[in-house]
């Protein structure tokens, strides 16, 4: 065991280790008011339904628990506070309120606690449906954004790459110029909305409805989700006041899979638009986190009588999007599939990379997950000079179980995919190619805008971490001075191939997929089958689609410029390796040695 984790164990008691080889979906404990030792071991496990807690079976991550993470929540523990009794958390009782994150590998955040004054203590009140705490910081944390926070025109938008970051509250205005809030995306600036579809993992329906402008607020919306049983009932209950909302349940037939895709389909009077993004439909995800999206051009309607195959792009985006939607086998999406066929998507310059649950053999193996990425890199990129010195870079907000050592998946099939450039000249990955992984350290989280509660969206568990200490030597911290987002913890996920001097990209991918086998797929049966558990979606930027050989890395991302040819990588290059004192953020152990930016400590019980 690495020394840092050993120390944490000595200080805070022994933590049990889950026996799942796949995903660790341990349910988070609720933090105590202030105690140095956990009161109990972490051992709850989930059944095959990703979203409900049952009697023990293999544990997994992402889950019903995150959707009820606000239960029994109060404010964070103040650094000076004194020990007091812990509060136990009910599990399957409330609808989604603040859900800090999402992923097949993400567990819900422990709710931080504040030491109450004696005068504050009052008899426990029954929770009501309309009393959802909006944040782990408490009800007063969010501030309404001023009118000038939002975009008023499209002049500052870079429409070459159409890759945008979310706006972040609490950073200088310059770093939000050309970034987008959900209210911007849904505003009349981009089109006169008639209907929409929201694909996502976490939903706060009342908040989501408010993000639509008043004139579009009652237009029909379909929510595509992966909820089952009680959590599905709660989602439907949330929507009762909104008769314009309908639901489409994504089929999740493989254990521990999730519907993790985040996409908007927007149908306007003027045409149609697609947004593929990294944010959940909850307020926390749009407030002080680094998130990203690809926004399509406005797709015009094809002339009446055009064949369905018309309006295809050089990247085959139209047929790939239709194939992804058809994979849901959902009657609720049939009308949208027909609608997309009637539009001209030929201006699209990105490639679609999706994951859909299943076990695939033969040609179907290359349709989804990392083998889909491998196929595109093989067919549409070319080898570069000294390519073994071009780094592979992965950046994510959650980590699944990688196996006992790097040869089990990460440095084997996954690295082989990420190092593909053109047709294979050799079957094995070059040992010289460096893989750099960017994931926030404890210090990154402690000093962030949100403080320790930001770690609720970075749910790497002690159970998983202890099984793969070999992985931590790959880790680099989160630093994003280039976008003014060093203190806005990432929920964005990006992967890229970058030149030895970090000035050029061979490709760039923004996606919902974290670093996990559930998201990307894992080979089985002597490499004749790939098994994918979850729905994921992202877009791949290849220089060839832009008539370029590589993308130059943009040095001045903000304020955004419509004329820039550089690619706006959201964080600083080169990444900085963890120092000897740094540890990866692990969400379910205490951090009591130093207060965060709000004067709080993190004490899971």
Automatic annotation (TrEMBL):
Keywords per UniProt: Cytoplasm, DNA damage, DNA repair, Exonuclease, Hydrolase, Nuclease, Nucleus, Phosphoprotein, Repeat
Catalytic site: 260, 491
InterPro entries: Tdp1
Pfam families, per the entry: Tyr-DNA_phospho
Cell location: Cytoplasm; Nucleus
Biased composition regions of type Basic and acidic residues, renumbered to the chain: 45-54, 112-133
Cellular component terms (Gene Ontology): cytoplasm; nucleus
One function term, GO molecular function aspect: single-stranded DNA binding
GO terms classed as biological process: single strand break repair
Described function: DNA repair enzyme that can remove a variety of covalent adducts from DNA through hydrolysis of a 3'-phosphodiester bond, giving rise to DNA with a free 3' phosphate. Catalyzes the hydrolysis of dead-end complexes between DNA and the topoisomerase I active site tyrosine residue. Hydrolyzes 3'-phosphoglycolates on protruding 3' ends on DNA double-strand breaks due to DNA damage by radiation and free radicals. Acts on blunt-ended double-strand DNA breaks and on single-stranded DNA.
Residues the UniProt record annotates as site (Interaction with DNA): 516
Record protein name field: Tyrosyl-DNA phosphodiesterase 1
Principal localisation: cytoplasm
Signal peptide: none
Region of interest (Disordered), residue spans: 13-143
Family the entry assigns: Belongs to the tyrosyl-DNA phosphodiesterase family.
């Amino acid at each position: 065991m690495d020394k840092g984790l050993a120390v944490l164990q000595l200080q805070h008691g022994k933590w049990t280790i889950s026996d799942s080889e796949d995903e660790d979906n341990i349910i988070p404990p609720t933090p105590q008011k202030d105690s140095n030792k956990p009161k109990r071991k972490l051992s709850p496990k989930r059944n095959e339904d990703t979203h409900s807690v049952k009697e023990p079976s293999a544990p997994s991550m992402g889950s019903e628990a995150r959707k009820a993470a606000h239960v029994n929540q109060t404010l964070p523990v103040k650094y000076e506070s004194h020990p007091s009794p812990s509060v136990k958390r009910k599990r399957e009782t409330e609808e989604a309120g603040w859900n800090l994150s999402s992923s097949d590998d993400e567990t819900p955040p422990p709710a931080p606690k504040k030491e109450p004054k004696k005068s504050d203590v009052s008899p426990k009140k029954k929770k009501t449906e309309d009393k959802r705490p909006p944040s782990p910081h408490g009800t007063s944390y969010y501030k309404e954004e001023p009118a000038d926070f939002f975009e008023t025109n499209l002049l500052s938008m870079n429409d070459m790459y159409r890759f945008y970051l979310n706006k972040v509250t609490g950073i200088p205005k310059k770093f939000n110029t050309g970034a987008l809030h959900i209210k911007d995306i849904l505003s009349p600036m981009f089109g006169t909305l008639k209907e929409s579809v929201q694909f996502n993992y976490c939903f706060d329906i009342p908040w989501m409805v408010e993000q639509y402008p008043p004139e579009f607020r009652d237009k029909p919306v379909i929510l595509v989700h992966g909820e089952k049983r009680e959590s599905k009932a709660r989602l439907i209950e949330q929507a009762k006041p909104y008769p314009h909302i309908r639901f489409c349940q994504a089929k999740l037939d493989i254990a521990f899979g999730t519907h993790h895709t985040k996409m908007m389909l927007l149908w306007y009077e003027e045409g149609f638009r697609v947004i593929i993004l990294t944010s959940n439909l909850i307020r926390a995800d749009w407030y002080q986190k680094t998130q990203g999206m690809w926004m399509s051009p406005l797709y015009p309607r094809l002339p009446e009588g055009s064949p369905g195959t018309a309006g295809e792009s050089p990247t085959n985006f139209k047929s790939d999007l239709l194939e992804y939607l058809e994979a849901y086998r959902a009657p609720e999406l049939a009308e949208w599939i027909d609608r997309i066929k009637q539009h001209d998507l030929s201006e699209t310059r990105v490639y679609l990379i999706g994951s859909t649950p299943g076990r695939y053999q033969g040609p179907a193996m290359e349709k989804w997950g990392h083998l889909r990425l491998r196929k595109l890199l093989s067919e549409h990129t070319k080898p570069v000079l000294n390519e073994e010195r071009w780094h592979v870079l992965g950046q994510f907000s959650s980590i699944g179980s990688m196996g006992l050592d790097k040869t089990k998946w990460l440095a084997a099939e996954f690295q082989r995919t990420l190092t593909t450039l053109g047709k294979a000249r050799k079957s094995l990955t070059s040992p010289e190619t460096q893989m750099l992984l960017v994931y926030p350290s404890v210090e990154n989280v402690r000093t962030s805008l949100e403080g320790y509660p930001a770690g609720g969206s970075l749910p790497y568990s002690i159970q998983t971490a202890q099984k793969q200490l070999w992985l931590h030597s790959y880790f680099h911290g989160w630093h994003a001075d280039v976008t003014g987002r060093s203190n806005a913890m990432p929920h964005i996920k990006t992967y890229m191939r970058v030149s030895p001097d970090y000035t050029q990209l061979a490709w760039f991918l923004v996606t919902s997929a974290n670093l996990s086998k559930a998201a990307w797929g894992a080979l089985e049966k002597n490499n004749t089958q790939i098994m994918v558990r979850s729905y994921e979606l992202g877009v791949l930027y290849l220089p060839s689609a832009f008539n370029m050989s590589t993308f130059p890395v943009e040095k001045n991302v903000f304020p955004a410029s419509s004329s820039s040819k550089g690619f706006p990588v959201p964080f600083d290059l080169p990444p900085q390796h963890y120092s000897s004192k740094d540890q990866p953020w692990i969400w379910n152990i205490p951090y009591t040695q130093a207060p965060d930016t709000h004067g709080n400590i993190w004490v899971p019980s």
